[in-house]
Request: fold
Amino acid sequence: MLLFLLSLALADSQPELPPADELPAITVRGQYIDYRLRVGLQGAEAATDLIVSADPAMNCGDVRFDRTPGPYRQCWLRGRRNASIRLLAHREGEFGRDWTVDWTGCEPRDGGRSCEVAISSEILVGATFRTL
Reply:
């Protein structure tokens, strides 16, 4: 009985909370800190034909080779807003003699073997392998 009376006394000393529908409005202000960069790959002929990025990491390959042993093939990454992302084309043979790559939505670098893009929104980069 003493325990019961003690619990009633403690319950009376707790402040009463308002019902949930009477809480004041909450305003949240923020913005995305990262965006998605997608790569549209065309012209891949082998499982080793990839568009890669080191930081953040990405290995983009043709979906026909998804079940082929090797690196996981994912054609998107999330990058920090205003960060520069470097994409590099990788294919067997010598670049410029055996093959080349055409880029869209990205500034070519290293004679066209790679490209660089600054992430400022959702971005789609096109990469088309060409055999010479």
